[in-house]
Amino acid sequence: MIQRIQSIYLLVVVLVSGALPFWLPLWTDEQSIPVYAQDDLLVMGSFGVVAILALSAIFMYKNRKNQFVINRLNMILNLFLLGFFVYRSLTLSGETNVSEKGIGMLLPIVSIVFLVLANKAIKKDEDLVKSVDRLR
After folding, report:
1. Closest CA to 112 of 5, 12, 34, 3
2. Which is nearest to 118 in space by CA: 60, 79, 77?
3. How many CA atoms lie within 13 A of 129 on its CB side?
4. pLDDT (tens digit, 9 = 90+) per residue, 79-136?
5. How far is residue 58's CA from residue 118's CA, in Å, rounded to a whole number?
6. What are the structural domain ranges in the chain?
7. What is the pTM of this model?
C-alpha cells in the first residue's frame, strides 16, 4: 500500500533532504561564496541519512509501528541538524563580514513538518486497523 498519504509525505521528505540541500545554499562564507551541503561532510551525511531513513520508512508499510519509530528517529536527527544550523548561524561573524544565511537552513524544519504529518497519518491507519479488529 505505497499509495497512502504518509508515503507521499515521506517522499516529500526524501526530496527535501536528498536533493534540495545540493541546490539551495546553506549559508555564505566570509568571501561571499555560497556553501552547499556537499561542501561540508557532516551536513551532507546528515541529509543523506535523513533521506535514507525516510525512503526506508516508505517501504515499511506492513509494519506501521516500526515506520512510526523510524519517523520519530528521523525527526530527532532533523532536530540535531537544525541545532547545528542554529549554532553555525550564531557563530557566523554577524554584521562585520557577512550576515547572509541561506534558505537551505530551513530544510530540516520542512522535513520535520512532513514527518509529523506522516506520523499522524500512520497513527490514523493504526487506529483504523485496531477498530476493525475489535469488530471481528
Report:
1. 12
2. 60
3. 11
4. 999 998 888 777 765 555 555 677 888 899 999 999 999 999 999 988 888 888 776 6
5. 10
6. 5-135
7. 0.86
